[in-house]
C-alpha cells in the first residue's frame, strides 16, 4: 500500500471515530454534545461535521472522503462549484448602503426593494410622476424594480458566501474562506456597511405601502444558505473568528425576533401558499442556528397540518401554486421550501418526508407529480406557465430520491442539468434552479 493510501486510511479512521461519538450534526443545542470538546480542537475541527441547519454536516464530511478517494460524480460536481467560487472570490463585497434611493426610515442600512409584479396604471406626468395607482400583473416583472439594487446584490452576496464556504470546505484553500468571511462581515457585521436586522421595506408598492410581509420571501431560502455557510466556516476557516461567529449569531437572533414579532412576519406566517412555507423554513432554520432547537422542532412539526395538509392534493398537485401564471415554476419553488424544511426536520427529529395528509398527499407525491414534465418537457405539463424551465425541480428530485422515493431515483438521469451543472452531490439541498430573481 502506498504512503498516500495509508494516509487516506488514517484520515478515514479518524473521521469515523469522531462520527461515532454521540453528536447530532447540525443541531445547535444549548448543552454541548459529547464530541464538542474534541471538535473544538484546531486539528480535529476540520474532521468534524459542521453544525449546519439545512445541509447534512455528516454528508459533507463523507463527500470530502469521496473526493479524497477520487469518486467521479463528486469530483465533477465540485469542479462545477469551483467555477462559480472562482468568480465569486474576485467579486463584491456587497452592502445595502450602496444605493441612491433612501428607505422611508431615512437609514440606508435598512433593506429596500419594490414589488416585482406591480406596474403603474397611468401615464407618468409632472402631477403624477410615478404613474399611480399601481396594478398587479402576476408573473410579469416590472423592470423599474431593478433600479433599487438591494435585492440583486443580496442574491449575489448570499450566493457567493455559500459557494465560497463550500469551496473552502472541500479544498482547504484559504482564499475562499477569507472572501466568504469578508462578504459576511460586510453585509451583516461591519458598522459602516451592515444591514439592519429587519425587512420593514421589502417589496413595497409605490403609492400604496412602504413594505409588505411577502417581501420576507426575498431572504427566506438564501439566508438559510448563509446560515449553513457560517456553520461551515466555524469548523476552522481562516479569517472567520469566534467573535465573528458570535456577532453573526447575535444578528441572526435579532432578525428571528423581528420575524416572529413584527406584523409583517405574522402576515407572512399566515400565508397559505409558498410564502408561508418559506417563512416556516426561514424561522425554523434561524432558530436552529441560534441555539433554539425546540422552537425549530415546533415549527417543523406544525408544518404537517399547517402546510402539507393544505398545500398538497391527493394526486400530488399543489392547488395554491397551479393557480399562478408560472405554475411549474411555483410548484417547483414551493417544493424547495418543503424539502429544505424536511431537511431541517431531520436535525430536530421530525419526519416530514414520511408524513401523508388525510387526502393522501405528501411531499413525495408532490415531487412525483412533477416528474413527467421534469423528464419529458413542457408537453407533459398540463397547466399554463409563462416561462417553463424543465430542470427547475432537479434538486427536489434529488432530495426525494435520497429520502427513498424510487420514482424520483429512477427519473434522476432523465432530468436535464441546469447550465452551471448539477451541484447537488456537493451541496445536497434544494435550490430554485430557474430564475429566482423574478420570484415574489
Strand segment count: 4
Strand content: under 5%
Low-confidence stretches: 1-34
- Give the spatial strand order of the biggest sheet: 1-4
Envelope shape: globular
> What structural class do helix, strand and pairing data support?
mainly alpha
Q: Tell me about the biggest sheet? A: 2 strands, parallel
Radius of gyration in whole Å, from Cα?
Answer: 22 Å
- Report the order of strands and helices: HHHHHEEEHHEHHHHHHHHHH
Distance between the termini: 57 Å
What assembly state would you assign to the polypeptide chains in this entry? single chain
Mean pLDDT, rounded to whole units?
90
Residue share in helix: 40-55%
In short:
It is built from 17 helices and 4 strands. It has 440 residues and is an all-alpha fold.
Describe the structure.
By secondary structure, the protein is mainly α. Helices cover 51% and strands 3% of the residues. It has helices spanning 3-19, 36-39, 42-45, 57-68, 72-88, 150-171, 174-189, 217-233, 242-261, 263-269, 274-289, 293-311, 319-322, 327-348, 363-376, 394-402, 406-411, and strands spanning 112-114, 118-120, 134-136, 201-204. A two-stranded parallel ribbon has the order 1-4. The radius of gyration is 22 Å and the shape is globular. The N and C termini lie far apart (57 Å). GO terms for molecular function: lyase activity. This is Alginate lyase family protein. InterPro entries: Alginate_lyase_dom, Chondroitin_lyas. Keywords: Lyase, Signal. It comes from Kutzneria chonburiensis.
